[in-house]
Amino acid sequence: MARKKRIAGGAGLVLLLLCGLMGYWVWKKVTGPAASLGAESVVLYVPLGAGFDQVLDSLEHLGAIEDRAAFQWLSEQKKYVDRVKPGRYRIPNGISMNALVNKLRSGEQEPVKVTFNNVKNLRDLAGRLSHKLEPDSVAFLQAFMDPAVQDATGLDDRTFIGLFIPDTYEFWWTTAPDRFIERMKKERDAFWTQERKAQASALGLSLEEVSTLASIVQAETVQRADAPRIAGVYLNRLRIGMPLQADPTLKFALGLDSISRVLDRDKEVVSPYNTYTHIGLPPGPINMPEARSIDAVLQAEKHDFLYFCARADLSGYSDFSKSYDQHLVYARRYQRALNERGIRR
User: Fold this and answer.
1) 208, 261, 219, 209: which is closest to 120 by C-alpha?
2) Could you give the 3-state DSSP secondary structure of residue 12?
3) Residues ≥6 apart with Cβ < 8 Å to 62
4) Taken in order 17, 18, 23, 24, is the CA torsion positive or negative?
5) Checking CA distances to 21, which of 6, 224, 246, 294 falls within 20 to 30 Å?
């Protein structure tokens, strides 16, 4: 009898030991590192509509988990298997399996920094966004070109590009086009402070007209110092009813933004963007004006210049003049400089 008790006690001890070892194994799997990464962190992308198996495959491919079965078991216990949330997740080296499941289950995404500037058109913007966010360029462009979407912002197909103020913003990777547009409208509303609105009103321009003129100024020079003075020239022309005669608007009308030289025949293009034949501002921006270009218009230099021409040294700066005769002197110097360099177009 005593022998049987000893055997039973020993078996119980062994069972208890096994349970303890099993518990320790489970604890170690749950609280220990999910994997040893070869970097400080990796980024997991979970597309919209992805299932748990796809998440598992991606984690294995990234080397973020070493034990697929253990991760699946824990995910089942925490009910993550049926609650996959799309997003962009940064997984640090050394994160425990438990913390990893919690991060994914809670949808704890890392925001994406999206920077855009030097944007010529909405197609260009859509392409850039598709490289940073989940939706493709087609989805973004369709939203941008939707008349109902444009109307909801108070803009139209010609002024809609002015909705976007180039800068660096943070978005969730899963941001849909409609949400992106909503955010950009809020940013635009915030940008147009009472002070800026008052400056626009003092110039006799609407916010859309300021953006349009700013896009022309932006296309005219890469030199920030010249921008307020160039804006002043165009405002002087608008005030006296003189055609703007802005070469960048001709390039836009011709679809030839890359040309370096505008020819006389270009000035005959039939387009509302031809500021040689149409007095006043064109119907909308010819690119996406940056904040500095908008402010260059709002804070335009007050002067009597009516003309400007790129300098013959091709430095990007301009020579300004009050009379057409003086302007012709500068223009001939510039044309001669282009000829000497073989720049014909």
Assistant:
1) 219
2) helix
3) 42, 44, 91
4) positive
5) 6
Question: What is the rounded CA–CA span in Å between residue 318 and residue 303?
Answer: 15
Percentage of the chain surpassing pLDDT 70?
90
Q: Write out the chain's pLDDT in tens, 345 residues.
A: 656 656 555 555 545 545 444 443 444 455 667 677 778 999 999 999 999 999 999 999 999 999 999 999 999 999 999 999 999 999 999 899 999 999 999 999 999 999 999 999 999 999 999 999 999 999 999 999 999 999 999 999 999 999 999 999 999 999 999 999 999 999 999 999 999 999 999 999 999 999 999 999 999 999 999 999 999 999 999 999 999 999 999 999 999 887 878 888 999 999 999 999 999 999 999 999 999 999 999 999 999 999 999 999 999 999 999 999 999 999 999 999 999 988 887
Domain 28-106 has CATH 3.30.1490.480: yes
Q: What is the DSSP string of 299-332?
A: TPPP----EEEE-TT-SS-EEEESSHHHHHHHHH
Q: At what angle do helices 194-203 and 207-220 cross, to 10 degrees?
A: 80
**How do the domains of the chain map onto residue ranges?**
28-106, 112-191, 194-340
Q: For strand 112-116 and strand 87-92, is the pairing parallel, antiparallel, or unpaired?
A: unpaired
Contact 86, 45 (CB under 8 A): no
CB atoms within 10 A of CB 343: 13
Residue ranges in the chain assigned as alpha helix (H): 2-31, 52-62, 68-77, 97-106, 122-130, 137-145, 147-152, 177-191, 194-203, 207-220, 227-240, 247-254, 291-298, 324-340
Contact 334, 312 (CB under 8 A): yes
